[in-house]
Amino acid sequence: MQDESKSALCKNTLQGLRELGLDIGASFFPELLDTFEHDTVERLAALRSAIAAGETGRLRKEAHSLKGASLTIGAHRMAEICQHLEHLGIAQSAESAPELLVRLDREFDRVKTEIQQERLIL
Amino acid sequence: MKILIAEDENVCRLALVASLTKRGHEVVAVENGRKAWEAFKKEYFPALISDWLMPEMDGLALCREIRRLPHDSYTYLVLLTSLEGKTNYLEAMDAGADDFMTKPFDADQLTARIQVAERILGLHRHVSQLEGLLPICCSCKKIRDGKDNWQRVENYIENHSEARFTHGYCPECYEKYIQINFTAQEVRGEFGKMTPGNSLTCQEHSGRRAPASKSTDIDLWTLHQTI
Q1: Which residues in chain B have their CB less than 8 angstroms from residue A35's CB?
Q2: Core-most of A16, A59, B69, B175, by most CB within 10 Å?
Q3: Of A71, A83, A85, which to mutate for an interface test with B (greatest number of B Cβ within 10 Å)?
Q4: Within a domain: residue A1?
Q5: Confidence of residue A4 (pLDDT cuts 50, 70, 90)
Q6: Interface touch A71/B82, C-beta < 8 Å
Q7: What's the whole-model pTM score?
């Protein structure tokens, strides 16, 4: 069961990225958030399609990419779920993947809410 | 430093570019190994940071292709890893990778890796200069350095390495230049007490005895110049 009392995004990671934006340009941080949100929607669709088709190779690849993006932005819970999905892809067994995907969708909703809050303070 | 980044994941790539740009590097970023390879064939990059798993051409294949190119200058290759299980570092080293970084990258670690890259590239340039072709005068054997100055070969090597010279003669030159001249001087009554037998010592800068070379307590090089 997910602990939803914790933040979906790591505050330290966000602070580091925000500070990076101060050094290289104000557009960096909002662009990064937009890219993450946009790409995650596409990755989730690709994961759904891979699981439905039983394509474990594609499941592994998409989960791996989403894990990397999630870690970069500080969405650790999302990254953790992606890692489980990646393992299923490696093991070529996607039986429990639909359940993990539901958890991933729910966690992404939390992340989006926090991203929206970040945008308000920019 | 000019750095090429190959990373298919957009968020990771943006963060990498930002982090390196902030530190004053010139960054070119592409989203797969194939594009990185195309970019590399067009121009030289001193450093490449590449994801391991990428579409079209992965990081290992990219490393292999770059190492196959007959470049005079070295490229420092860093592979980004977030592979599950035991990462096959040896396979990556065989492919030509120099270093590894785990994703998500830590900004300080990234800086440290690039500093290592700069040091290695500096040493490589130095070694290349020493190993490379040197213009040498056919007559006096002086060497032309990078600043268009002509130096004696021993000065050049001393200035570009830790080596130090002591001057002596190989047996052939000793016979040719010294013994004959000693004999002539002795006949004329000059350098009466100095003979190879009682005044020569053998030495090298390393301290090992060198039976094939001979030098004297007095500077035979100077002596030879005066004979």
Answers
A1: 10-11, 14
A2: A59
A3: A71
A4: no
A5: low
A6: yes
A7: 0.71
